[in-house]
Amino acid sequence: MIAIVDYNMGNLASVQNAFSSLGKDTVVESDPSKFKQYNKLILPGVGAFGDAMEHLRERNMLDALREYAKSGKPMLGICLGMQLLFESSDEFGDHEGLGIIKGKVRAFDTSNFSESLKVPHMGWNRMFTKAHPLFENLDDAHYLYFVHTYHVICDNEADIIGRTNYGYEFTSAVAHDNVMGIQPHPEKSHTNGLKILENFINL
Fold it and tell me: Does the structure show a pLDDT above 90 at 11?
């Protein structure tokens, strides 16, 4: 069974509906003591990094998520959920993350952007991927839907499995052992996004 973490910072219904369209039931779970009973875990997220970490802290989810990451069972962060996997973010202050993957979260550096590029980075863009089970049967450059102003800077090259260009190249997908993250929204990305979720189901 797959659980979607409910900490009041994610578009849970659309994520759950995407899995339902693939014939897979999910549970929206707000009790951190139950995380360990699930085979797979989804950490979604929409909003600001600091607010999200505070919500997780208030719900006693921080240690439960870190322990799940150590379990060897697949875990997927989506959009802000991916960013939370990292060590820190400077979004509206200096905030500590889950620290599951080494690196930090920073705003797009727009100093050399052309006038046609705006932030947030919103809309369809290509993700160039390395071979990984999450991208099984997808082209190594496929379009997905993005909405974000901040992006991760990953310390370890080996953890980067996807990159996207928006003014410059940034990391858009990561994997460290059983823990994965993708910056775009698969639940909004039609066929390609659903394929990523299907591949996650099959891990």
Answer: no
* Cβ pair 21, 57 in contact under 8 A: no
- Nearest one of 63, 60, 28 to 43, comparing CA atoms: 28
User: CA 183 to CA 160: how far, in whole Å?
Assistant: 12
CA distance 58 to 76: 21
Q: Which residues are catalytic?
A: 79, 185, 187
pLDDT tens digits for range 92-109: 999 999 999 999 999 999
The crossing angle, in degrees rounded to 10, of helices 190-201 and 12-21 is 80
Half-sphere exposure of 159 (CA within 13 A, CB side): 21
From residue 4, alpha-carbon distances to 91, 145, 162, 201 in Å are 24, 20, 23, 13
Global pTM value: 0.97
In tens, the pLDDT along 127-143 reads 999 999 999 999 999 99
Instruction: Give 26-74 pLDDT, tens digit per residue.
Output: 999 999 999 999 999 999 999 999 999 999 999 999 999 999 999 999 9
- Domain architecture of the chain: domains with CATH: 2-201 (3.40.50.880)
